Amino acid sequence: MLNQIMIVMQVLLGLIGAYQLFLTFFGWYRKKKKQHFAPQKTFAVLVAAHNEEQVVGALIENLKKLDYPKELYDIFVICDNCTDLTADIARDHGVFACERRNLNLRGKGYAIEWMLKELWKRERQYDAVVMFDADNLVGSDYLIHMNNDLCSGSRVIQAYLDTKNPSDSWITASYAISYYFSNRFWQLPRTNLNLANFLGGTGMCFEVGLLKQIGWGATSLVEDLEFSMRCVKLGIKPSFNYEARVYDEKPLTFKTSAKQRLRWMQGHFDVAKRYFFPLLWQGIKERSWTKIDAAIYSANVYNFFFGSLLSVALWIKGITPGWAEMPGVNEMFPGVLNSIAISIYVLLPVSMLMEKAPWKIYVYLIVYPIFMLSWWPITIYAFFTQNNKQWSHTQHTRVIRLEEVQSKQVS
């Protein structure tokens, strides 16, 4: 019985890996540029912040210089349970500081839900809401791209996510490599195939009519994935704007990174439990590739979980005589799983080359496998602690201006 289970697991994981590899072939090209429109949409720019006094000022300065008519957007800093000077800095910069106090309902999802309710009460209403984290930097043409997409009919839009500090450590470089691959071979293929894209937690744009229609409702530890799944379930496809750039600060140390990734994986297990089967059955019933693809995407956390357990089991098999008879797919179909894994790894430097990554980041491909292997214990621990809904704050300290980020990319 154990042998059969092991074979089934290997076949399923192999099929999922093959599917992911299949999608990457549609990331080798970009469609023609979209239609351009004169600035007309109004935006409420929300900045989620919890004790971000060190970095929020740089983002506000960045946002006030966006290449978009200033009368068409307002900036709101959500000062969520802040005990530092975040609110004072926001007010000093001449933007709205919206202070929230609720120690029971903590986290970005709850803060956004509260802010939207406050926003609907205001005299001025907007066409769209965009969301950033306080540690971000934003390309100067961001709102121009969001305006174009909204005018073209998009209702939920994710910008291209890049890393603000890729050269700070091997950890930040590993995040950057993951982003290059994700943008080129996860997001872009889905755009080219007219499937649903997935929100990345920041750089997100939402049509106000949609938010008022379905509400926010995304209060899990991964509010971005949760809202993505809600949209797809309702037949709404989030889109991806390759030109609109947002730069996200990544943790410098392994310890901080592990804490952040643990929170993500705990949230992913929660969302997968709630959306995988409904989306899968709905997709099969409606013959909707979009919904089936979203279901598979939501279950990626289980792919990591079972993949890590299976890999450990196969390693033990290789060094333990008693396990020698346990069958493996690689023995039945030599090289299949290894070919898929190697192909995906080879695509990492390919994506970096296509995305014009700084040359110094290529060196970190040597240690990137360590970063990926570290997901295994994190994911396994997250599986057994997935009922922990306690949000944890990632401290941000890197004060960098947009000009510095862009100059490093060119050099």
The CATH architecture would be Alpha-Beta Complex
CATH topology category name: Spore Coat Polysaccharide Biosynthesis Protein SpsA, Chain A
Task: State the CATH superfamily name.
Answer: Spore Coat Polysaccharide Biosynthesis Protein SpsA, Chain A
Helix content: 40-55%
Mean pLDDT: 88
> What proportion strand?
5-15%
CATH class (first level) name = Alpha Beta
Q: What letter string, H or E per element, gives the SSE order?
A: HEHEHEHEEHEHEHHEHHHHHHHH
Low-confidence stretches: none
What is the strand tally? 8
What's the arrangement of secondary structure elements?
Blueprint: H1 2-24, E1 43-49, H2 56-64, E2 73-80, H3 86-92, E3 96-100, H4 108-121, E4 128-133, E5 137-138, H5 142-151, E6 156-163, H6 170-192, E7 204-207, H7 208-214, H8 223-233, E8 239-248, H9 254-286, H10 289-298, H11 300-319, H12 329-332, H13 336-354, H14 368-373, H15 375-384, H16 402-410
Parallel strand pairs: 1-2, 1-4, 2-3, 6-8
Antiparallel strand pairs: 4-7, 5-8, 6-7
